[in-house]
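User: quick one
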Amino acid sequence: MDANLSRIRKVVESLLILTLSGMVLLTFIDVIGRRLFGAPLYGAHDATEHLMAIMVFCGLPLLTAARGHLTVDLFDKWLLRPGMAWWHRLVSALVAAVLLLIAYEFYNSAIEAGQIQEISQSLSIPRAGMYAFIAFASLLSAVAALLGCFGAPVSHPHATEEHAK
Amino acid sequence: MTAGLLSLLAVLVLAFLRVPLAFALLSVSLGGIGVVMGWDVARSLVPLTISEAVFSYELAVVPMFILMGNILARTGISDDLFSASNAFLGPIRGGLALSTMVTCAGFSAVCGSSLATAATMSKVAYPSMKRYGYSDSLAAATIAAGGTLGILIPPSIILMIYGILTQTNIGHLFVAGVVPGLLGLLMYLLVIYAIARISPKDAPRGERTTMAQKLQSLRGVWPFTLLFVLIIGGLYGKLFTATEAAGMGAGLALILALVQRRMSWQDFRHIFIETATTSVMLYAVLFGALLFAKLISFSGLGEGILELFNQAGLGPWGTIVAILVVFLVLGCVMDSLAIILICVPLFVPILLAHGFDLVWFGIIVVVVTEIALITPPIGMNVFVLKATLPHVRLGAIFRGLTPFIAIDLLRLALLVIFPSISLALVAFMK
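Assistant: Done. Structure below.
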């Protein structure tokens, strides 16, 4: 089980690297082409937007599983006591509920987008697939949050504030 | 207005109870919009808000600038910057502290994160200052204060988030941050110089260097200086949009790091994953903040507060002072990103009603949150230093920071009274 999870994590991390590299490469080529040769890369903006969506929603389950979301740790001294485990389970349940709602709403959006054949502006990428992917990633994140309800109690006071400023 | 006010309180309570900020904002916004506009509207706004944010070319600025900062931070630029500034400033009394401050400004110019700047500089500069007999108080306070320059000198993560929330041009915000950032650096240097004159034992001289050593020290720094000039110059000269500048910056930083062999495959992998994770975390809170901004708008809370301010006879400048007091007080107990995400949507309608420039206000907000980073009880930069330098007493750091906080308040007053300090460069751009 752990080996499988580790393999999945590596695949997702590779996807994160690929999408981010793709965004930088596309923007770089587009700007050089536009400014130096008067020939922008067709569809670069559209592709960048989709790569960003893939990156964000690929990373969401990983971040949720790692309990890496931004938190305010002012009262950690009290809130991280062993007796407060029930509160962290409740918080995980709230997080899971919100993510499930997002998954459900994007599932509906995917169906609607499929019916009206919604596509992106320049590359005509079908939006239904993207919405379905977001729904699936949100569902996975909800599962990751739910596992947090039954997993080890929260014990990392500095969470992710480091990234914030 | 009541629904908006209750929602604001609920977000604050949930955030303080360690509910992840993104989900505190999302759940309260859903509930609030549900009550004010109906559940169908609330539900339909979820995919709409998230899609608008995630399928936005303009918002791709966030991960690419973070990537640029992470690449440069990993490649040892901080050591090169410190060596160069120390070669020039070291021999002056208090020179090591002055060098540290200049390095903080230079590093933050490419990094964009105050905490990362403080953490990096504590490893780069603190040992040198201690070796030369600097007091713990001055050495640690210099690094903590210097770290705050990271969120003002562009590119800045906080300015990007502010720009997204208020739909203000991020390029204009970056250009507007240049002069206040340099002013902050100059004022900090004056503080250190004054301390070195008043209490010479706290800040002795460093080693003398020859001209050849000075020139040699610049070798590692010039490519990154060129990169910074290209990015900010490109934005100022309207050669790039903010997103294009971010892509160019990240691409060039990557090329520089690879050409100079400053990065291994392991580093590459680590930097990209770290960037993506930070970006996902920021996007999650942005989704919540954007939905929360919609709730504030629907509930009429902003207009309600404006009416209260008017009834109290505060007037435009009284309103600004009241808003700044709110930011300063919250800054003592909350981190800067949280304050901006929660408070900015609340105050934007008030600022617009009084005709204030949102670019100028963005700079003011960032300066206020800079001050919050070094004020007790929750000065995040101070805590980062305490974590990396556990033997330095918290009281000594805060004591050393007192003159820096005082000069910061003076700078804040100058920026409020003279908006042109922030806006002059932007006006030239237009």
